[in-house]
Amino acid sequence: PINLNYKHFYYSPKLGDELNKNDIDLFHFHNFRTYQNLVVKKYSKINNIPFIIQARGSLNRINDQFNFKRLFDYIYGFDLLNDSNKLVALSRYEKQQYEKMGASSDKINIIPNGIDLSKYQKLPSRGTFIKKYNLHSYDNIILFVGRLDYNKGVDILLNSFTKLKNVDSIKLVIVGPDGGYKEYLTKLARDLNVEEN
Questions:
Q1: H and E: helices and strands count for the chain
Q2: What is the pLDDT along the chain (197 residues), one digit of tens a residue?
């Protein structure tokens, strides 16, 4: 089917047809504000099929889509939460976000992301990272691991780090895939004169 995308809002005109072709017992949404959720919610009501929402960090109304998110919530979002059979939160904080939006505490379960420990059975030898990035064993390292995205607050971390840049042997290590924010963060580090740290 043809999918149209506007700022991560995907429109799938044939989705309803696909749903009718399948024998479905449960729907599990892995985001909150999507066109697909609205179509599936309608289909689930008609066919009495339960659905679970797992927002995965998408509840906050921060960033450039604030007004779009607020409008979506008032038209569809609050009903979507109320009509869901279960809500899955990654943390206590996300549970509080659901509750702030009027969701019943009884239907919220906290299930953190899992980690496949088998991927970490064979680690590089100690000191490999320090050598690779010209660090020293005596360096004090602050580590950020996450997507380089406005919502992650790495700019706040960089600004805060300026207060520590005169501390002996302190380094800030930022690790993660670029979510469109790396160029800005690199320039910010340069402007704040912490690029060397």
A1: 8, 8
A2: 444 444 555 666 677 777 777 788 888 888 888 778 888 888 888 888 898 988 887 777 666 667 777 887 788 888 888 888 899 999 999 999 889 888 899 999 999 988 888 988 898 898 898 888 888 888 888 999 999 988 788 999 999 999 886 777 889 999 999 988 999 999 999 999 988 88
Threshold 0.85, pTM exceeds: no
Residues in CB range of 21: below 8 A, 6 or more apart:
none
The pair of structure tokens assigned to 36 is 């697909």
User: What are residue 103's phi and psi, to 5 degrees?
Assistant: -75, 145
Distance CA 158, CA 194 (A): 8
- N- to C-terminal Cα separation, the chain: 49
The full DSSP string for 66-94 is HHHHHHHIIIIIHHHHHH-SEEEESSHHH
Are the beta carbons of 175 and 145 closer than 8 angstroms? yes
